[in-house]
Amino acid sequence: MYSVALFGQRVIQRFSYFSSFPRFLCNRQSDADGTGNGFGRIEDYLNESWKSMNFDNNMKDKSEIQESVDFIGINGCYEGHHSRQIFSSRHNFIEKVRNEASMILEILQQDGPGFDAKEALDNSHITVSSLLVREVLLGILRTINYANKNRCAKLGYKFFVWSGQQEKYQHTANSYHLIMKIFAESEEFKAMWRLVDEMIEKGYPTTARTFNLLICTCGEAGLARNVVERFIKSKTFNYRPFRHSFNAILHSLLGVNQYRLIEWVYQQMLVEGHLPDILTYNILLCSKYRLGKLDQFHRLLDEMGQSGFSPDFHTFNILLHVLGKGDKPLAAVNLLNHMKEVGCEPSILHFTTLIDGLSRAGNLDACKYFFEELIRQGCVPDVVCYTVMITGHVVAGELDKAQELFTDMIANGQLPNVFTYNAMIRGLSMAEKFDEACMMVKEMELRGCNPNFMVYSTLVSYLKNAGKLSKAHEVIRHMVDKGQYIHLVPKFKRYRRC
């Protein structure tokens, strides 16, 4: 069996015996400034591959689908010419629900002195369904901002209580999650806990979605440990795609950077008699690295091998991330070769992870080498990989090289995204080519790639530093016209959006 212990000792070292590997790649350059380049954290790519396991995260509630089926009268026997009638009936039903939801939202908006929204809802004679509740709560969720958050929370809960009292209707777990999300946006933490208690009391399963809502909201409010402890002790916590609920908890904690809490949960997991699997190990490797505990990182690799687990696609990605950030290109070459030997062909994600790390370490020569290497090995650079390279050149002050890559990217059919444009606008601004930078903002808009606040703020910042205040104010006015003014207000929210 392949020894991960031996492997762990090898990959973190520099391998001087690679005489054919260019020596200049080992020379460190000035550190990058950590500017975002659109390449997600290593945790994001771990989470991305496991999203499909989170069945209750984005799916509509089964009862919502069943209601539309029951309303239309579909029983599985319709064929041929009936299909058009079925589609039309379903479309009409959905439109009816949306119209009723709009009517309810208008009623709720009038709530206040002299107007009883509950009485108006009673008199509306609208039949409540899961689809209707979902539409109304989503409507409230979309309108929440810092100024109206308290009112939105009250109106959302008033409707939630009223709808739950209607005949022939019972709230679903998704309904609870939506009102919890409204409370999360409104920073009503205690109200969220009361809803969880109510769910448990009424026998609803508290799933990973429930946990995610709480941990994302309460994690930055200092309540993360309380959330985890309650879910570990809860006998109603159910998450089917994972072997056990501990992995679901670890997975959620990874997304909100609760690395120390991951360590604690892992110990609780062992106490409960649950053995780690490859998913557990990958999460733990991430947390150990983020906490700077490299000695424990190595020991974990050893333990992983002793437990009979070989590195998978994501383990290799984590290791390449570590080697890149540690500016160890020689070890990265060895690791890429080893991946091929064990049948894990390096992908564009693996190369981009490595290049991103090396770029942040300031080793642009190594970035160029691996960019050329990935092409030689048959990988096609995507927009993310190009953006990482462009950002690296911009940070190093090599605008000409960045522009060359930008041109090649478009020629190769990869359309720039907002991060690519932001990197280029930053580079042009650094070179005080403000007319070209403003032209690029217009080009973004023409291509349908809407500039975000970062794009505008980058340009405005450099314009102000160059003393071009009138031009900076012009960009700000354009930013306001495009609806980016909300970002000029300080962010008061204390929680991380899920």
TrEMBL record:
Keyword Repeat among UniProt keywords: yes
UniProt cross-references to InterPro entries, sorted A to Z: PPR_rpt, TPR-like_helical_dom_sf
PPR repeats: 172-206, 277-311, 312-346, 347-381, 382-416, 417-451, 452-486
Entry annotated with the keyword Transit peptide: no
Top-rank taxon, per record: Eukaryota
Alphabetized UniProt keyword annotations: Repeat
Family classification: Belongs to the PPR family. P subfamily.
Protein name listed in UniProt: Pentatricopeptide repeat-containing protein
Organism: Anisodus tanguticus
